[in-house]
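Box S2. Input/output pair 1.
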Amino acid sequence: MKAVWRVADVRAAEAGLMATLPPGTLMKRAAAGLARRCALLLADRGGVYGARVLLLVGTGDNGGDALYAGALLARRGVAVSALLLAPGRAHGEGVAALRAAGGRLVDRPPATIDLVLDGIVGIGGAGGLRETAEQLAASLVRHCGRDGARATVVAVDVPSGVAVDTGHVPLTASGRPSAVPADVTVAFGALKPALVVGPAAALAGQVELVDIGLEPWLRGSPALRVTEWSDVVDWWPRLGPAAEKYRRGVVGVATGSATYPGAGVLSVGGALAGPTGMIRYAGGARAEVLHQHPSVIATGRVADAGRVQAWVCGSGLGTGEEAASELRAVLSAPVPVVLDADALTLLVDGSLADRLRNRDAPIVITPHDREFTRLCGEEPGADRVSAALRLAAWMNATVLLKGDRTVIGTPDGRAYVNPTGTPTLATGGTGDVLAGLLGSLLAAGLAPERAAATAAYLHGLAGREAARSGPVSAPDVAAALRPVLAPLVD
């Protein structure tokens, strides 16, 4: 997993490292990595020599990084212009280095720009862009390079204007993000939350981490961790010679109803793609489930389903007394449970609070933002990681807060973010597929946070795979899970 660090932790690590180095060394390390990435981008756009680069330079070290990187590019024959947003407060040594290398200062962007380096605001910024910077950022879309294509924007460490510790992006009066959208972000030493979570992550573009020697100086616990494919490979249950259907795990699925049979079909489809050896379905959609999935053992009630190692409950269940009775039966079972959709609605009035408090087995809940709001009485807000962690602590449950960058929070304060999400999954029924897959992973023995992180990661990949063929529906996502999971199957 990739670790993601808060600003205070990064600042402390930088201070510790800089105390061991000659002055300016850390900035020059960062600038060298930044210049190297810019040169590679320029090479793809017709070559480094003769390219035109504009530096947007603010008042802090972020601007200094941009100026030193610009000096390195100028020495390679790049025509580098620097626009200082506060000329009297720019990094003096950086300005001198740029001029000595042949770069120049300008008071307006040149007509032709191949690449823009956004060094306006770094990790010390807050509250979005100031008006001048905001207008300048909005004007960048009108500038093109030698090849006629829009200028490539590279953010220095983080896109200017984003809230670094939360990933929140303030909006302008006209509703636009008050931040500079980047095609590439070159991050120094450590990933920051804004690069992986919240609306800011979409503005960061492709993120490249440059090693400046910071890692040994980072102390304490990361703000969150990013799931990687290697984690999924390590966690996925492997089949041995003694494997058989019961040892692989049995997952119970209490979803769907006569009114919403599709929810049962889709959640079972997600469960069947997982690593367990048997599915026991209990609910009012058993005829439809058996028609679509004949290998499933189907009954009408949770009480009649038989023994399972985990339950999935809620999708399409309804919110009447019969549905509440089924949820109570699921919560009475001494096994991990996934609660989704209607099951979450049934928790809102607090009548099942004792069932939740008295459980020893893990609970995973999978709310989207509106369900989160009903449970908490307030929206997730600007800090989705903190919101997920608050709900996890309050409910003593692992929370999978769905979204483009799904956040997973645990009761003991650990947080994870999924990098594979896609807006194509914002369609009815895809959450049912996710819940089924998650339940299968729990039944196979994965710890709740690993099951949640794995399910979200693979579900996101399935959404991307399904989108390759056109508009995406939930059955497409369920079907796409199989090719996505194929490399994991022995």
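Box S3. Input/output pair 2.
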Amino acid sequence: MRPAAGRFEKVSFDQFAKGAQKAGWSGDVKAAYDAIVLPKRATAGSAGYDFCMPYDLHIAPGQSVLVATGIRVKMDPAYVFLLFPRSSLGFRYRLQLDNTVGVIDSDYYQADNEGHIFARMTNGSDDKVLDLSAGQAFMQGVFVPFGISEDDEVNTKRTGGIGSTDRKE
């Protein structure tokens, strides 16, 4: 049996509503929030936890969109959670995350935005429209253990949300 690396939760309704607005989605926010499905593995041998769409989304060829998943993850600090598009959508539509691989650090859970996981993705197809329905799996996340260097001396704490650890030089 593998050790548990984390636990998925929904963000608060207010945080999801802010995220949906930030993503430019304007449907029935309460219905979308109530229908959020926590990520699950499809089979006992699956490494990835499938993230399902919280609402319907139409992505034209070449179009980039932001998705407010409504999900956050509390995890063991020895792990990082990596996000990837579902393989089948990558093959059929060249769907890609705009940051290539999403990296969710364990301290993101305490971020100002409640650790709300967003996905900015692009339909890389030249000619196929990608229609994603509420409840359809579109992205997967994998827990990965990681190490630190023996001379690591970082003591700072996260306060902001996405991109908050960008270095300001």
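Caption for Box S3: The longest strand covers residues 137-145. The helical segments are 13-22, 29-34, 87-93.
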